[in-house]
Amino acid sequence: MSAEELYSIKMRASKKENGTDVHISGAEKIVEAPDVDIFANALIERGMHHSKGEADALNLKIHKVCKENIIYLDALSVETIEVETWEKGQEEIKKYLKETGIDNPQDVMQFLDETYAMRGAMLLDVDRLIRLEPDKKRGIRATNMDQERMKGDRIGNEKNHYEEAIVLATKVANCPGIIGEICISDDPEYVTGYVSSKEIGYRRITKMKRMGSEKGGRIFLFRGTDAEEQKAIDFLQNQHVIVRNVPKKICKKSDMKRAQKWDKIDKALVSLKENHLFRAMKTIESAQSSHVTIDGKDYVLMASNNYLDIASHPSIKSAVVESTAMYGFGSGGSRLTTGNTVIHNALENKIASYKETEAAIVFNTGYVANVATISAMVKKGDTVFSDELNHASIIDGCRLSKAKIVTYAHNDMDDLRKKIQENPCETGIVVSDAVFSMDGDILKLPEFLDICEENQLFSMVDEAHSTGVIGKTGHGIREYWQEKRQVDILMGTFSKSIGGEGGYVAGETRLINYLRNVARGFIFSTSLSPVTMAANLAGIEVLEKEISRVTKLQYNVKYFCTQLGKYGINVKSETAIIPVIIGDEENALTVSNYLHENGYFISAIRYPTVAKGAARLRVALMSSHTEAELKKCAELIGKALLMK
């Protein structure tokens, strides 16, 4: 190849979706012979790594270009229109169309929807509103173009949306019969688009679609005769063009990158607020109990997991003071280095005794306990069967494990059996909440264990919301069902009825030894403070001694459900969690705010904690709530639901 020769390099990358080739990325360059290998490698790298996914196929075409056939054009002038929202960006398109002499901008814009699935652009007769592309599925491909570059210029594999768009817009604007162009990128991370024509130049509009949307398309606006129509198609697809003096994107220092990198975050926050999914924290100024102080005002707290109201029990406070005097506060290291004390060992022994297992291990939180345990028990090639309404910590543990995840219908043992038969595995685990945190219903433990035993699968149950709540003495799921068999992996927390902090797993000694040596959430975490361990230990002792708290909580559940029934709110629960389903997210917030105004703190639970359209009040009762408080709360909820 002669150093002065020019070569066209074209790259197209695609992937398979449902048996169909889907376009991912495309680009082209016109370069001198010595630069062919550099630009070809850059385009290959670009095609293989794209935000729209990994390519299954990549085509690269290189051919010589006859210099005499190249047209050199000066780049269009550039103007930027800053808009706050994509909706305002769409209004700017309409203004542009009117400037271009189009009297029916809305009719033209309706064709944008048809461009999203096209590989090329639409060629639209703006007067007759007729599509002119010979191949409607493929569209018109404006190709054979690049910008002029100085000798020695190189380019990386990243896409320069700005410069490449100006090159294309300049060629299109100089095409016979084309009076303008509308372009919205299909890149989900790029929301800036443009409109252009020879008269107005290249007009960037900073937001033309929602962030994250893959909807993008291009319309070439045509006005002319049938003969000019074919000339336009030939020019767009075959004429080689090099654009001179393409302007570099110049930003003020304050605008550089910062606006772009935060745009996705800003849009997400706006979307959360628009859809009534934005969350803000209320600051409690008093101890966690059935009554709390917020902004100096007293509220009946009916949203807390402190079900037995022992978080500030005198015995726990005394344990904290005594352990602080003896051990100080910090633990100083992970359990496997310097962070293990006699009080850590005592708590684990106490948990094992309380849950009637051989041993136990403490984790820093219930979330970590689930994530670390599941990811230690199953790996890639194994299978985990998970209830569809399991807690997020279980879901995340399943994902982190890289095992095959099979979700079965909520608390449906027939579906679980079916899914196990359809997904045979050598090593597997079946995991479920004992009491489901959003609905308050209870796992069918006996049948659950039957299925695990029949199929030689590990059983794992999360008792976060069952300990201290169900069973005659509050011992949890096994006591509730009077089940003698043990669960292989019994997980729980100290942060609910026990009124403390942290999580644990109880089971056979070999299980606990394995987790101590393999569970990354245990190995690589500084251990909880000895003070926290002492508080947890005292909390379990209170739970064992003061069974009347469990009895009172169970009475409150029945009483409150009866009171709600008087207002046509038919809920059934045997646990401290009583969901009042509202559905609409905005309505759920309205009811929650109404209760707050009347002295009751009850959270509105919305997506993604629960499914969209399944927003609810999650009432969480305590043993210390009085009948008068529960009766009044039911009345307020009834009134609020009538008003919404």
Task: Give an account of the 3D structure.
Residues 298-635 form the Aminotransferase class I/classII large domain. It is an enzyme of class 6 (ligase). It is a single chain. The chain is an alpha/beta fold and 644 residues long. The protein has 20 helices and 26 strands. It has 4 domains: 6-69, no CATH class; 71-263, no CATH class; 275-310 and 548-643, Aspartate Aminotransferase, domain 1 (Alpha-Beta Complex); 314-544, Type I PLP-dependent aspartate aminotransferase-like (Major domain) (Aspartate Aminotransferase, domain 2). Strand 1 (6-17) and strand 2 form a beta hairpin.
- In helices, the fraction of residues equals 25-40%
Uncertain spans: 251-258
Strand content: 15-25%
Total strands? 26
The CATH architecture category of the largest domain equals: 3-Layer(aba) Sandwich
Across the major sheet, the strand order is 5-11-10-9-12-6-7
Q: Which structural class is indicated by helix and strand composition? A: alpha/beta
What's the CATH superfamily of the largest domain, by name? Type I PLP-dependent aspartate aminotransferase-like (Major domain)
* Count of alpha/pi helices: 20
Question: What fold name goes in the CATH topology slot of the largest domain?
Answer: Aspartate Aminotransferase, domain 2
**Gap between N and C termini, in Å?**
76 Å
Please compute the radius of gyration using only Cα atoms.
Answer: 33 Å
Q: In CATH's first tier, which class of the largest domain applies?
A: Alpha Beta
**Overall geometric form:** elongated
Into how many domains do the coordinates divide?
Answer: 4
Mean pLDDT: 89
How would a crystallographer describe the biggest sheet? 7 strands, mixed
Family: Belongs to the class-II pyridoxal-phosphate-dependent aminotransferase family. BioF subfamily.
EC number: 6.2.1.14
Cofactor: Mg(2+); pyridoxal 5'-phosphate
Catalytic activity: 6-carboxyhexanoyl-[ACP] + L-alanine + H(+) = (8S)-8-amino-7-oxononanoate + holo-[ACP] + CO2; heptanedioate + ATP + CoA = 6-carboxyhexanoyl-CoA + AMP + diphosphate
